[in-house]
Amino acid sequence: MSTPFYVSPQQAMADRAEYARKGIARGRSVVVLQYADGIVFVAENPSRALHKVSEIYDRIAFAAVGKYNEFENLRIGGVRYADLRGYTYARTDVTARGLANVYAQTLGTIFSSAAEKPYEVELIVAEVGEGPEDDQIYRLPHDGSIVDEHGSVAVGGNSDQIGSYLEQRHRDGMTLAEALKLAVESLSRDSNGGERTLTADQLEVAVLDRTRPQQRKFKRVLGRQLSRLLEEDGTSAPSEESSGEPSGGASPEESSASEE
User: Fold this and answer.
1) Three-state SS string across 6-62, please?
2) CB-based contact 216:244 (threshold 8 Å)
3) What pTM, to 2 d.p., does this model score?
4) CA-CA distances (angstroms) from residue 125 to 19, 122, 155?
5) Is 120:142 a contact under the CB 8 Å cutoff?
6) DSSP labels for 125-156?
7) 26-50: per-residue pLDDT in tens?
8) Which residue of 131, 164, 203, 239 is surrounded by the most CB atoms within 10 Å?
9) Residue 121: in which H helix or E strand, if any?
10) CA–CA separation, 230 vs 107, rounded Å?
């Protein structure tokens, strides 16, 4: 009788983690930064129809890298969770912490299950508070762990290099223009140390703006407003030209099985 093939649980989990990390690393990075009036999300994404950054609820937004179909399913599930909880209890009961816990349970269950492959996704869930000290940013890797982030965070692509660049240069109280420029500078850096030029047409930008009078704090920064912010010296405040829409996705290149 032949001896059955055996792989230790530690090796099996290490192989699954490496598989997921390689898929995530092929995607274009997303950067999230705190600024004086809220939280800004910046991604390299030329599509205006498919998004990496999406609204989940009044003060909560979602960003992701990896396989589009996988993180789109997670986004839809998050919207349903938020709507149901807000309707059953109260809108204030919907929090980024609660949403991050739901995502962590889902990702952790899938990652530890031998019956299916791990999700090749990395998520960011952020909630804007009444003041900068109340902002919440959570990063969720493929294995379902939760990392509480402060100030700045990057996922996907060469996120380690981008994260180090942001950590050295990000500071509290930045204007939106300053934070946006820093994010674009970090995304422009290649893994080999070179730099690229990213234009407004290649970027997807959205903010959670605590100064908005309406209940929904999410809005997309588009067109002339985005171009103007990229050209400013960092002293101007954001305008209300664009509105937020709860939609999710990725660039056309990322709508295939894996991001390129």
Assistant:
1) CCCHHHHHHHHHHHHHHHHHCCCCEEEEEECCEEEEEEECCCCCCCCEEEEECCEEE
2) yes
3) 0.84
4) 23, 10, 12
5) yes
6) EEE--SSGGG-EEEEE-TT---EEE-SEEEES
7) 888 999 999 999 999 999 987 778 8
8) 203
9) strand 121-127
10) 36
Residue type, 187: L
Best CA proximity match to 54, nearest among 176, 220, 242: 220
Quick one: residue 221, left, alpha or beta (phi over 0 = left, psi -120 to 50 = alpha)?
A: beta
pLDDT tens for 137-153 read 999 999 999 999 999 99
- Whole-angstrom Cα distance, residue 29 to residue 258? 14
Mutual orientation of helices 9-25 and 96-112 as an angle, nearest 10°?
120
- Spatial contact of 123 and 103, defined as CB atoms under 8 Å apart: yes
How far CA 231 is from CA of 87, 112, 163, 225, in Å, comes to: 42, 47, 24, 10
Length of the chain: 260
